[in-house]
Amino acid sequence: MGRHLIATALEVEVTEMVNELKSAGRDVVRNGYLPERSVTTAIGDVEVEVPRIRSRDGNGSINFSSKLIPPYLRRSKSIDAWVAYAYLKGVSERDMAQVLKGCPR
Prior knowledge:
Blueprint: H1 2-23, E1 28-33, E2 37-41, E3 44-48, E4 51-55, H2 77-93, H3 96-100
C-alpha cells in the first residue's frame, strides 16, 4: 500500500513538472527511473523508484528533484521526529522499554 501511494504521488509530481516545462517551450520527455532505493517510513521500509526527465531540445539537462522523496532520503521525517521523541522520553523517564512499546514498526 505504501509503495503504491508513494509511486502515485511521484507520478503526479513528475507529470506536473513535465507539463510546466513543456508549457515553457522546452522539449522534455520521461526517461525511466533512478535506481530503486529503500526509505524507512512509519509503516516500514518502502522501496521507491524516482522518475527521471530528459531534455530533447539540447538546452541543458533537466534534474527532477522530488519534493516528496528528496535525493539521498533514507528515512522519512515522521521517523526522525519519533526517534527524537523516544530518545527524550526514554532519557527523562529512564525507561526505554516502555517507550519502545510504542515504536511505529
